[in-house]
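Model it.
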Amino acid sequence: MGTGLVGAPECGDVMKLQIKVNRETNVIEDAKFKTFGCGSAIASSSLATEWVKGKTIDEALTIKNTEIVRELSLPPVKIHCSVLAEDAIRAAIGDWKKKQGAAKPVAVEAQ
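Modeled.
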């Protein structure tokens, strides 16, 4: 499980995105979100979770906020909502990678 929590100080939107990743295939099997903010922020979060499901970690990292803007037809004043979604994806993946590094057994040299 990887969790990304991001916020936009200019409007008070807060977005939490969680991903469940298959360790063998690195495929995102599930994604959930909780967003406090405007409709555009909620829509951006929802779209992000739909788009990352079924993708590998590397594929999910290619999702750009401009694609979210285009898909949702966000006006210029709401572009920051799409940036939050991209940032949340990256933060969740970063958290997952960090946890995977910590979960790996460390080889200790015998003395």
